[in-house]
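hey m, so remember when u said the tokens were messed up on ur end? i reran from scratch. heres the input so u can diff it against urs
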Amino acid sequence: MSRPLETGILLLLGVGWVYILFNIWAVTQLENIADLRYDNAENHGKSASHFSISDLASSLSFRSPTDSPPRPQETFPPAPLRDFNLTHHVPASPEDLHPNKWRPRIMAVVPITWPPENNGRVSHQFQAILDTWGSHVEILRFLVAKKALDKDPPSKFKFLPKRVREELILPVPMMRGESPKERNIWEKMWRTWKLAGTEYLNRAEYFVKVDWDSFLVAENLRVYGSYLNPDEPWYMGHTLFQRWRIQNLVYNSGTCYVLSREALRRLAIRLHDIKSVCKKCGGSQCLDREGAGEDPQTGGCLRDLGILPADTLDAKGMQRFLPFRPRDHLFRVEYTADQNDWFWAFKGKIGQKQVKENCCSPYPIAFHNFKTSPQAVWDKNALHEMEYFFHLAPYESRIIGMDPPSKKQYQYDPDVLDFELTKDGNTEMARPNEIIGTWALENADKLKLGNT
């Protein structure tokens, strides 16, 4: 063998041994760092499993003595905060009304028509709700007229998810029919609130009406609601003003609105005295009638109790309850100064800011208009996409990011009002049965605690 060849072989063997020895040294250093990180984690009460290879690799990087130390991570509340059974009790002290202290329970009710169509879309929507926002609430119920269930029991529809058929349908004792043609949604809702106000009152702190085609960001609502006392009467949603001038009515959109436990307790008492009228009567008053339009009717019943919509805008004036899909608010919804417009009436300069990229709070509570009817363009995966974008973030990060509620009444632009308000907040055109809080004053004894 020639000398150059022997020299080359010896050189390769030497390099190989150097490589092996370096790897042995590197592994030893990594093990030492891992032990150190583990000890530090134990000393700070943090699981060592939270440290990754990237953490270890970063510790091997070379720093000069003048380099600043790495920025410490933000600390989050301890894990027991996520346990509903330990933390849902309302704090006794107002100072403890904070998401670090407790987690309110949520009951969501979804009115649906019956019998369900076997067109693929209905069964998919049920399952999508269960898989997405419905999995974040303590109680979920789909509302169906009892006599419709007697005629067509859920067990008959094998294409529906098993949980829907066996657990999640709430029979509502309606007197009228509930077909899509009849649309007696108001009767369904007032009877549901009356029922919930007696049978479910102590099982949740907040009660939410969610449309079939809405998406509830339940964890954002939970953080938002933890700043409020649910044993005070809160009525929250996207506030509309188009009936204010003529009917003295400000109410929340029926796409998604929230009642605190105390608001529901009082509303259930009010609904025990509800009277029936003709189909076209009482559109803004607390009366039983045929047809839809349940959101202004609900607002009318709450107005009788002196309960008005809360301000639900965030600190920058952006909406938390959105009546359309995100893409619609971002690209299609345009402001109009028409004070007869159902959406923009009396919002003025507040509404002017709520378009395009300023439409929606970074921590929204609800969106709407994810249609499933055969006539609509169906976005099959919409709810799952919403789940990914709005429920993926840890609950604790929402506490840091969300603006607390203002705890004030709804906002409007006084510069665009074309009518006068009395010192009590009523319009001058209000009729006697449309005055804020009249029924509550006349029935104070009925509203006392213990009379539910």
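this time it looks ok to me. The beta strands are 106-111, 139-145, 169-172, 206-210, 214-216, 235-240, 251-260, 275-276, 287-288, 366-368. if urs says something different then somethings off w ur setup not the seq
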